[in-house]
Inverse folding.
């Protein structure tokens, strides 16, 4: 056990975050949520918690925060209901679990972990995922719990226009800037040097029922492997799947000898070549931290080797002593 | 257009194929199916068909053949019904489409292609996938169409023993060797040098409803990219997901400078390290063909640069002039 190994990074989504649309009160709420969740995760790591436990807990808290697009406050599909995607991966063993298009788990990331640890499967989709949550007596919630007024209004607007949009689509940056945003995720390195990653999302507003993005696709939205890196992605999921983004970061380090920062930049460039935007958070096996994005901003917070908590939405970074 | 570029490889699954259990008549039926499907695919390539069209058509024919575990003859889940997974990827553009746990498409691979070409999504799961098939008026079939007597008997046996098994589990190699097998897939290189890959499966016998393996996971069961390779995998899907097998073959070539054969062997070794068995078929950007497996056998047929059709189940290869 070596507490100097601890690292944490979390995100609440990347995208075309129009600064003008984000009023001061709302921005402060986002920043406070990121700061609180990251600092609690850091404390847990310093108390010896495993990277796996810490990323699950951080994502649970991000799912509970109603302004992010995951768990409560997730966007609505074309039927006007949430369909939740999540995944988790343990860098020690490459064990992984994921769910796609689940409608009832209060904490989709915990259901993903249950798939990993309590079944012989990796990925459960649709009603089958909800049935597992029920069988294991995991916390479930009725449809109303997940739906916020803002998300319902967004889906109605998208449906009227016949569009499927990203959660942060400029469409929603109207004069009333009630525009919740963002897939969420966490990556961590614990005092034993183990890595883990987890991601959770409601996907795209007004999406076709059953549509899954990169979040439940191990290798696209999430990867963790102690020898190289832990990665959680956010953005236009289809392009991330077609780039196998998270595994591509691993592969550039493992086979190409790239640094974590080089690997993240190269992998994200592959998404950009296809026309996709978004970002990712990553921690390397030597404790490096990278949080690149090719959109206007990304909600993020992290603690690096210097023990300083950093919180940012755009390029400017706020520092907080811990 | 250069007809010397054409290559085709197809598979009907890999696994513990007990030779003693495969009687002569059944083995002849498998070989005839592989030979017919591969030779028709080859003819289409020689007539200028695209790799994408050819892999879709080959997989449709493999789905129709009731002894393979895909489309008609797919294994049954714990509810006693089929849930079908499929994916397709176009090496020209890295466009991709996939479906998981669909219950009605007569040809799941064609539904995957419709997701790729007729929606803005890559992956549709569960009932949402069936709804797309209905909306696009793709061919659908009632539950009875898919279920064969052998698969129903296998699921009942697995359920009685409380097991989730591979389609080729030795459990089914009883004195009456009616043991249909295998995920199916195809990879091709056309006269323009473009690559494509497609895969289709019913997954594991007595699986939890909603369980998806590597087949619908782009980067695990399927990958195609003109710069490197086209890959279709078969085996114990959970281990293939945790290895991002298909993208790993690409990455070893792209970043590590491996040959196709080296990349396939290295990627399959990663699956083996986790305890997984199976195989893959792959065509490289220079026309190389590789068909490795770490199980006792793999149903496969291919045409290499010499224009000879080869068909094999175990190590011995039968050659047919075309």
């Amino acid at each position: 056990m070596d507490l100097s190994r601890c690292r944490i990074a979390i995100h609440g989504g990347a995208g075309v975050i129009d600064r003008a649309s984000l009023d001061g009160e709302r921005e402060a709420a986002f920043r406070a949520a990121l700061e609180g969740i990251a600092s609690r995760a850091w404390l847990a790591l310093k108390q010896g918690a495993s990277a796996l436990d810490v990323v699950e807990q951080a994502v649970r808290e991000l799912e509970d925060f109603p302004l992010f697009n995951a768990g409560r406050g997730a966007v609505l599909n074309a039927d006007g209901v949430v369909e939740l995607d999540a995944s988790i991966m343990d860098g020690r063993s490459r064990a992984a679990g994921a769910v796609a298009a689940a409608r009832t788990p209060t904490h989709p990331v915990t259901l993903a972990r249950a798939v990993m640890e309590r079944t012989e499967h990796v990925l459960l989709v649709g009603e089958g995922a909800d049935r597992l949550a029920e069988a294991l007596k995991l916390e479930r919630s009725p449809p109303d719990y997940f739906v916020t007024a803002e998300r319902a209004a967004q889906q109605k607007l998208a449906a009227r226009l016949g569009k499927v949009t990203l959660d942060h689509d400029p469409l929603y940056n109207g004069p009333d800037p009630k525009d919740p945003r963002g897939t969420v995720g966490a990556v961590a390195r614990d005092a034993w040097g183990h890595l883990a990653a987890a991601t959770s999302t409601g996907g795209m507003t007004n999406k076709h029922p059953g549509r899954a993005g990169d979040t439940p696709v191990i290798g696209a939205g999430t990867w963790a492997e102690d020898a190289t890196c832990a990665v959680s992605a956010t953005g236009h999921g289809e392009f991330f799947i077609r780039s196998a983004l998270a595994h591509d970061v691993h592969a550039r380090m493992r086979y190409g000898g790239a640094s974590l920062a080089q690997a993240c930049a190269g992998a994200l460039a592959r998404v950009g070549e296809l026309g996709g935007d978004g970002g990712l958070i990553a921690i390397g096996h030597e404790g490096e931290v990278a949080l690149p994005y090719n959109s206007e901003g990304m909600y993020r917070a992290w603690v690096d080797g210097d023990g300083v908590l950093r919180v940012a939405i755009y390029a400017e970074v706020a520092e907080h002593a811990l």
